[in-house]
Amino acid sequence: MNDESLLETTRISDTCRLWLLDIGQTPVPTLLIDRHILKQVENGRCDQMDGVRTAIQIGVDVEFQWKSDSWDKKFEVFFYVNDTEKDYLDFRTERRKIIPKNFPTQRIGNLLIPTVIPIFLEFWHRANYVPCRNMTIKRDSPRLETFPFLQKYILKDPPIPPRESVRHLAALRDQMLRFGIFPFLNGGTFLGWFRECTVIPHTTDMDLAIFSENWNTEFFEFLWSKQSKFRVKRQLGMVNDSYEVTVLPKTGFPTPIDIFLLYEGRNYTTGADYRWVGGTAIDGQKYKYIYPPYDPYCSADLLGHIFWVTCTPEVKVTLEYGTRWYTDRNSLKYVWNAARNVVRNGRFSEKQMRDDVYNEYRF
Prior knowledge:
Layout: H1 14-23, E1 30-32, H2 35-43, E2 56-61, E3 75-81, E4 88-91, E5 97-100, E6 105-108, E7 111-114, H3 117-125, H4 162-177, E8 184-185, H5 187-196, E9 206-211, H6 217-222, E10 230-238, E11 241-249, E12 257-267, E13 272-280, E14 285-291, E15 298-302, E16 305-309, H7 313-321, E17 342-347, H8 350-357, E18 358-360
Parallel strand pairs: 1-7, 2-3, 9-12
Antiparallel strand pairs: 1-2, 3-4, 4-5, 6-7, 8-9, 10-11, 10-18, 11-12, 12-13, 13-14, 14-17, 15-16
GO cellular component, one term: membrane
Domain W02B3.4-like N-terminal: 16-130
Membrane topology: Single-pass membrane protein
């Protein structure tokens, strides 16, 4: 359970180390998942732990479930499945939970302690599993119903290979996590996951969103380094307004991945809060895609990889795609600025477009 992180590693104090060593004499390796204990370890306050009266929550591989009768009653044991074909640990609790399996730990006795504690606590906060629908979809024809003579002028980007593209998406997720960024599925990628448990076969790119307050400009700088597995293809907008970055993997199929910032907004007429992502046309026209307050604090499986999603997926797809979201519409017919939840949002000036807003990169 180790992965390189650029985030600060928790230094375990001597007091905490002794306390953890005392409780870490377990019959098999265990993972400390107790939120209260981890916060105390993070703050170096283990001298206050002797009075802990509630059972300490730990994770144990289901392979050791046969030893369940030997556990000390001071522990509350959560068994998990560690499937080598998946990149997450699958906790079979009353409400199923999944968390990424690659995170740095330190072993004290038989106890594995996450060492980037804030990130691990976020994993656990977002762990509630949401299933996809796995619907069988009748595919829409790529032919235009109106103005069919325009068909030959439409640029036809190749559909992306689903499994390889999802592996790229997971690699990008991992690079973001190194900078404390928690991306979640968005747009057509989110629709494909919820509706079909896979990538929509005619789609030509993938979509992620990030809360604007969670963005880290150091990650964008990292994308230009040799260490990054991705290169920047395009950057639109500005960090505080309609920001969007498109990246391509450096190896394998060049699946375009669009990264959108999701901003906070308020309707001052109604007093209602909302979230929005931006879109920018080549002439500087800005668009705003409006969502209700977003809750990307649940987890999903997309072809064996964990991604974070809204906990209310049907509400979100209905808002964006309408009540017939289960009806396929070919990607060739998709008009990006004609969604149900989009409104105009002003315009960037010519100078802004030239200097800051619209950047395409060649390599």
